[in-house]
Design brief:
homotetramer, alpha+beta, Chorismate synthase, AroC fold, five-stranded antiparallel sheet, 8 helices, globular
């Protein structure tokens, strides 16, 4: 069950980075939602490698095929299976990883857990696994658009290493974010970020950063009390993305230094709508959306693969050294932006269906 | 399903803060685990109000009753139901909350979602709901002790507002933490923290802070790739605790400013054991424990209930003001320490059983 | 997870026949459904022992308490916990069962599985466990009545041993069934059935029979293709009732001797409604209700507890003999009628909520 | 969630009979189980059309591809995705079904539920959907063989229409069953059954029958009390197979006419093993296997597609007539035998993993 997410809009991803392919089944998509492969491809293209000067030069088309669940351009209500074939098997590029554990990768822990692993390309811990998530989320986005047309999810790079971006979550647009290859919401910071990534890559090193995300237009009432709070499910979704180390919503860690009188969000009436004057809550109160923008941030560590020699051990339990090679992202954040959006839409869609079941008209 | 957690060690909590009582069913506890009510009570007593000078003066015994699932002091393998009766119903203390939404509480969002709510004491969003979690986690702790006797989970207050604690997660002891009523792992910081809480309380205000948690002695192999990563499930568990705003594991948000060469944790052999020289990973790689201490931090906002007048709105959609009254914690962190430990043990226990099913002997 | 049922209207039962009590949590009940303890008690009273001359003379009130989830006579949308206390602990009545396995009971298999069991009263395999199901189903019935007021579920005794009842599922009424203590839908057969039960009881023996059930007024569209077909979930629900050995829907086993031309149900228009001229399908086609009455039958074996000496073995693996004693039902069917209805309503309610989530307005 | 089965060995099937293909993901297969495509193909070949003179003449190879989850001939512990491409799209063969509902098929109920359906070939209600089940079950069989090498599941045709087979479940062999194209365990009855099928087919009509199944060598302890009883999960699994109308275990419906003294299965010691002298329980007591052979029967109705004109209605709600055409099985039982075995193995495997999690060494 490790590869399933969602109570009602349930996705099951599959596939190693090397093998027949990667993909996903969505079981729980409502019928009659307009859907074509083009809807998926546009999101997959934002995720794919080789798309810009700051991503890995590896070039894969990641062309998807919808195997089931649609008819005449609309969903049937049956499981939607999506397949993206793997290309360019180059298992020889991973030959030394068969016996040597890459530091801060999942090589050792997979062996410790399963007693086996596919050493080529990281197996299930490969970034390729996120293809299934992005494809499924493209469908979630269509479902959300169908039932809540005003919902908009946008993520952007908030910082690269120590370079901050100045972004207003209430007004930033998709065009702002896509205007620069680093996908920051602050185009003015893009050049410095791009230069930093290139510099670090030329050193054979890597860097991380923070992605911020907003959901605007979310109706009040999504999310559940207790365990399946909206922010709890978002936290899980975000921490399930490879390379993430933290999540915070609304005021986050900085909010821990405020007093209650500073942190509370006073309610007021905006015509017929209940609003809050501030948004330290980040759009969620008691686990349930309150109609304000949902705002959160996700911490990404620097990419584990670097081009310098590092101490490590072998499968046979000998100390050794290993130097990365091959083509990798020196900074995953530009490609992680659509993945953060994807996880957000998957979780919102699941909660929307849950809400309809229990509290719908 | 909003009140269920866990795939195999599955808990279902129930109960409003006012009503017949609160409690939990654990479905999925292995048989023949030694268990008595005293095992639960010791953990419940760490959570209960009125236990010290820095918690709410409200005094509840929170005495628990095991209704089912044990026989002659051991578990049967059948569902274990636990009930804690509510005492001192004082619904009149909440009379103004029937129609007026407390800022940064769940009053408005519950009404928006369900069209109804129990206004007395916050209903399911009351801290009383965590009684079921703590009771269930006391059982999880026994199961962990049965199968992995070396596992130890400890949480402590890492900061109160801007007062930090200096704690070594590798060596801090339960005795250190319980030696002071604020439950910081740094007894030297306790007096300042206690003074700050009392000061803020005397102002009718509130403060938050950060709790840190370590799991020592966790075997490698717990956790799953992809969605049910150990850190993802921990993130969900922590963000499901009332008043939390953030979660970070290992290097966390600070790690986003490091380079890969600084952040990677080199492996080395320690006798026959694979270890890492540093622990920026926080004990988890690729979603699976690597045998190093699991370390994470959780952000708690200041308590929403404060004793000054705040702008808000009524259920009837009129602007108004509301001033808190009654007995509340000015700082929830001392009582939240056992809850952080509880959520951790619940998640570890679930993953332990999952590991046994698939990868056990 | 063995004690949970339902994807959305999820119930978790608990309790041994001897211990603090038995009960259930319902997680997934929509808000604002009118509900009081009287709604539950009326169904529990149909299930309880001691209610008539053909049930065990043991007399238990089975008074229920709603611990949570309601407010001012309506559901809150939060978990509803229900507790029925055990009375009259007489564990000494079960002293010989500690070491000796009753034939065709669960004593041996529980020991084989768990390595332990509560020997008093059968533990979780006691008929008392069904109290939680009946209480939860009383709520399911209220939810169904709220959203589909035309739905009516009725079960009745179709045969006792070899005594058949002649019942028309389209016209039989609750009054017909409750008019006789054996709960057959054919009052003309009741006297013979009652006489047979009394006769068998006087011999210290036991008998079984068949219960038939109809759901009238079920809208088309409930149920899911593939695994969660309405009849598949009904089959599971029925076979989860103690002492059941078979399930058949519509034409059932007898239908296997018909030809397709005889078995197919021709469609026709009845005004604006699609109907079928015959109902060999039993109201379900492709796993989904078609608007015709849903009709199925459930086989119950004779009660395992009899008052004559039987060969068996001890826990210590010695051959021995055992003679039942105490107060038992010689025929469980009269009390099983409300349990069959209960399982039906639980499954219908779950599918109704599922349908709302995916295909609702 | 309609296309998922299993708590731990969880399968998700997908695919319409016309479209890119059909298949399954297995999430929850233990690592290091030997597995190749040949293991799957041998079971798929028993299910495929065109295999003999009593099945539809349609000829499909149903060649499967394992897309993920294996490495060097063994499972990885990650999701195993299996794809079988559809061949010979002939949607024109279904042109009249776009608007006209076939009697006793799922056409009307799918439209009633989803508001849409893929009219070609029955969509998800096609027998082709069972390909994913059979492929997944071939893996379940390997897992069972790995952990419980003595387990053997065998199903056979017990009756065709009113022609019975005389089979001893304790001694029947796979060779007996596969020795005849109708797959009865009684080769002496095969000729008559084959002749009957051919006769009915020549009339353009169809027939049903009963399949019996035994699990020999199942260890005591599999199954759960209460809802997830082994027989309850088997009942659900069987009733989820298209065209099934009933399920009975052990003594079944016939057992309802026995007295308790006749029906109870006396225990005795067979060396160190607890055995029963009779097996009216069908190998399951209190929902848990007792070590005796598990025996059950499944009723299959006659195939709905027949070659004579039948009354029906159109999507536009007009009365009309429809005559089947194309190539269909006049009797599904020979091809349903491997599907009954498949569902059995899927359910046993799931319960084996559950047992390991809670009660394993």
């Amino acid at each position: 069950m490790s590869s399933q997410l969602g109570q009602l809009f349930r996705i099951s991803t599959f596939g190693e980075s090397h093998g027949g392919g990667v993909g996903v089944i969505i079981d729980g998509c409502p019928p009659l939602i307009p859907l074509t492969e083009a809807d998926l491809q546009v999101e997959l293209d934002r995720r794919r490698p080789g798309q810009s000067a700051v991503t890995t030069p590896r070039n894969e088309a990641d062309a998807c095929e919808i195997l089931s669940g649609t008819y005449e351009g609309k969903t049937l209500g049956s499981p939607i299976a999506i397949l993206v074939r793997n290309k360019d098997h180059r298992p020889e590029a991973y030959s030394e990883m068969v016996d040597t554990y890459r530091p801060s990768h999942a090589d050792y822990t997979y062996d410790a857990k399963f007693g086996t692993r596919n050493p080529a390309g990281g197996g299930r811990s490969s970034a390729r696994e996120t293809i299934g998530r992005v494809a499924a989320a493209a469908i979630a986005k269509k479902v959300l658009a169908h039932f809540c047309p005003q919902i908009e999810t946008l993520a952007w790079v908030k910082s690269i290493q120590n370079i901050p971006a100045n972004v207003d979550p209430l007004t930033v647009t998709s065009a702002d974010i896509e205007s620069n290859i680093v996908r920051t919401g602050d185009p003015a910071a893009a050049d410095e970020m791009i230069a930093r990534i290139k510099e670090v890559r030329s050193e054979g090193n890597s860097i991380g950063g923070v992605i911020e995300c907003v959901v605007r237009g979310c109706p009040p009432g999504l999310g559940e009390p207790v365990f399946d709070r909206l922010e709890a499910d978002l936290a899980k979704g975000m921490l399930s993305i490879p390379a993430t180390k933290g999540f915070e919503v609304g005021s986050g860690f900085a909010g821990t230094t405020l007093k209650g009188s500073e942190h509370n969000d006073p309610f007021y009436m905006d015509g017929d709508t209940v609003r809050t004057k501030t948004n330290n809550s980040g759009g969620v109160q008691g686990g349930i959306s309150n109609g304000e923008p949902i705002i959160f941030r996700v911490a990404f560590k620097p990419t584990a693969t670097i081009m310098s020699s590092q101490a490590t051990v072998t499968k046979g339990k000998e100390d050794t050294e290993l130097k990365g090679r091959g083509r990798h992202d020196a900074c995953v954040l530009p490609r992680a932006v659509p993945i953060v959006e994807a996880m957000t839409n998957l979780i919102l869609c699941d909660h929307l269906l849950r809400h309809r079941a229990f509290c719908g008209e």
